[in-house]
Design goal:
This protein has about 450 residues and is of the alpha/beta class. It folds into 2 domains: about 180 residues, FAD/NAD(P)-binding domain; about 180 residues, D-Amino Acid Oxidase, Chain A, domain 2 (2-Layer Sandwich). The chain contains 10 helices and 22 strands. The protein has an 8-stranded mixed β-sheet with strand order 6-7-5-16-17-18-15-19, with helices on both faces. Strands 9-3-2-13-22-21 form a 6-stranded mixed β-sheet. Strands 1-12-11-10 form a 4-stranded mixed β-sheet, with no helix packed on it. Helix 3 crosses helix 9. Bound molecules: flavin-adenine dinucleotide.
Length: about 450
Amino acid sequence: MTTGAARCLRQKGSSVDRADAVVIGGGILGASAALHLVEAGVKDVLLVERDGLAQGTSSAGAGFIGMWGAGYIAAWAGEELEMEEYGLSFYAQLADEGYDFGFKRNGNLWAVTTEDTWRNHLVPLAASSRVTDKRILGPEEIEQMTGIVSAAGVLRGLLHPSGGYVSAPLATLALADRFRRSGGRIALRRPVDRILVQDGRVIGVMTDQGRIASGIVVVACGAWSNNLVRELGIWLPMVPLVASRIITENLNLPASMPTIMFPEFAFIWLREENGALLWGVDYNCHPHAAFVDGALPERFDQLPLDGVLYSQQVGTQAAVAIPVLLRYRSLTVAHGTPCFTPDQRGIIGGAADITGLYVIGGCNEGGVSHAPGWGRLIAELVVSGVPSNPVADAFSPQRFSSDFQRGQDVLEALHGGWGSRAPESDSGAEMASVETRGV
Ligand SMILES: Cc1cc2nc3c(=O)[nH]c(=O)nc-3n(C[C@H](O)[C@H](O)[C@H](O)COP(=O)(O)OP(=O)(O)OC[C@H]3O[C@@H](n4cnc5c(N)ncnc54)[C@H](O)[C@@H]3O)c2cc1C
């Protein structure tokens, strides 16, 4: 065959591939769904990604993993805890298999500077019986354990010793590699244009390199998921909100430090990465809500840095407790768009009226922690139709009322209306509301 003829065969619509299941989206949720499908016995699973693996929000995640449902995030309950427990043991096993994805189990530490913050934010966490080895720490112990929090700047802390972190992009690559080794196929740089449906059943997807026939399609496109399902008359009530991760130059930080979160200083979060400080805050200023009901770019490299400038402002204030925030001289930034739902819980399950169509999304900035559990849940739903536990209802795509027709409706449910105001400038930025904090 001549080169010209081969090229011709790759033209749109000219070739038909087949798979038992197609997963669209090579972020951490898609990689986990694909892996769990193949491990649940689905023979030919094809993961299709328009770009490279881990190029979307999974490139920017901070990667904290822990038991957030044990009283830290009010909207998360037993179902999230079940996902989180499974996630922690899943990542530990992946690391035991020899994958290097920055997995560390140094603990999750929350710290406060005032009694009020302790009362308002950490009492439920301290009272929860779900984490039996949790410990309350005094200022000296916090300084010793973290190496970066000053004893003089904090009042008290709470430690979950078995929490930790991973590199979100490297974890995505590890999941994808295990998927491939288990017999899965990955097609990169192959955007899906449409999901094909006939007589109420999924029959495949159309890509820019031809059709892929399949009776099972899992949409794992993160913030772009609605672009694909909207044409089918479906709108998933979730809004993409920009969040940013900052990494400094190597500051020789101790590799043993736990993740650190303050329910103050705009919910600042920090951890060590190769000696550098990886950190961020929950900001509400531009471009946080820039893509609600608007077109989302395919990559985030060119996003405005207002939120990062605001983060630096907050960092300067937080230096009373974390002096290293005045010491760095260099930074790199990555942005992502975690998707928030009205009740802040994931959207995982089958479509009501289209047999064979599934979605895994609505990460609420907890997708790294929940990816293994949600991937397992999707696989259970696909293989048996009935998951082996009752968690599916909590994440069901059908649980929302018809009140949510646009991103703005979701935003208002989340924030009690702040989203309807014009985006704030960096100097006028206000602290993030409790309701939207992720991990
Ligand atoms: C600053 C920040 C901090 C965070 N911190 C944490 C944390 O500490 N802990 C935690 O658990 N979570 C955290 N998160 C959230 C976590 O990173 C996300 O939940 C997770 O990465 C979302 O993964 P995803 O697979 O849903 O989306 P994505 O990674 O965005 O993947 C979607 C993929 O779909 C592809 N795609 C889209 N449309 C198409 C198409 N038509 N055809 C083919 N492919 C398509 C995209 O290219 C993309 O690769 C954080 C996020 C950010 C931004």
